[in-house]
């Protein structure tokens, strides 16, 4: 299993690399940088050429049309001016002719019909070119926006040429019609009506003025429209220039992207070549290992147990191969997703750059830390070397000390043997002396026991007297504190006098509190002063009693010390019979000392309570009572 697992992983890695190489080589058809640039230039030239030509033509046509119109209008004005000058300036002398009166209205009607027809024609001719111009102006906008193919462009150009030709033909017809109208009118009027020339001339002038005003208005409208068209054309040119610039920028960015993609592909190809070289090396190693394994297998054919293990290993390898095939299939699916993920590599590259910067910063910090650590390691090594030298010295010294200790132990053993001999001799002599002293000590112990028993009786009597005195002093102290409570005297003879005193004192305090709330401040201050004076006198008396008790206790301590010294002297005598008696005496002495200590502590506690009460009563007289009750 140790050899099979890395072989399987290496095989999977090699198959994945080969599949990636095949996908990048055959699945993705790439173009060279020069071909891509040429195609983009062709596209840009096509776009720029198609859009620029119709604009130039339109600009030329728009520049020509107003000139033609202005020239035609100027020609018409000149013709009209000539006709007007002829009609207005020419004044013949009136001749009297005898003409019939009937045909005159018919001629007038014919002339009017001709004039109306000519006016309608001129109006139609003027309206048609205006409409054609509007159509011409409206056509470029969709053409510039919706041109997608060359066929559409050719069709649009043909339509524009046809419209321009129609407009020019209509202009020519207008130029031909307008000058003809005036002379026909003049000729007809000159031949048919000589008498009413003045009236006809006036009507004709009015009509011509109307036509002139209409033509001028149409001309002004056309000029304004031409100006608007020029502004629109200039705006479209600027928009197209902006679009061209944006397209050039996009081309530059795309070219850069293509270069980066080619560089990445080259790096990937280089990596694949390296992987193939590694693969070949690994195959050679594996072949050598397989040869060694085959040789071992030939040696181990006779061993059935190992053969069974090998079969189980083969089964596992087959299962691993199946798993590897499944993983290869999954990797093929992943490769298809890799092609989709190539678009996200740019964003990831930026992130990788930022991460590389951060890693460089961390690397610099780590290098500085490593230098510091190396210095510390060198210092530690120096210290370790120094310590090792010290250890060697100490080990040598310990060896010397051990040698000396062995010598001393031998000497001690010899001295112990000598001491045992000496002790035996001394014991024999001491036994003889102790036997003589035991008789004396027994007599002394008997006398001491008698004295101790007498002292115990005295101590018990003293303790009882001290307790009674303390109780009497406490009772007197409480009665002095609370002279108002008369029941305390009757209760003092009882055993449970402390609990009953507490109850009576608490009742008295509650009554005092209720009284204090009702009384005035001045009376309260006087009462407190009186109580403070009483308390001071009581405290002085208690201090005197305390001093007396202390003197008595010191005397008792001295007696106990003398007894303890006597007991210690008795303990020094080594004897088997006296040890038991001495121990008993020591126990009794300890017990008596503990009793005395407890009595002293109780006395000190009772006596030390009075100054605390005094200090507390000086601030608040009622609080002292609570402290004594407790």
From TrEMBL:
InterPro entries the record matches: RRBP1
Residue ranges the record marks as coiled coil: 244-472
Cellular compartments per GO CC: endoplasmic reticulum membrane
Residue span of region Disordered: 47-85, 601-621
Tagged with keyword NAD: no
Compositionally biased region (Basic residues): 52-67
Transmembrane annotation, as ranges: 6-24
Keywords carried by this UniProt record: Coiled coil, Membrane, Transmembrane, Transmembrane helix
Organism superkingdom: Eukaryota
Name of the protein described by the UniProt record: Kinectin
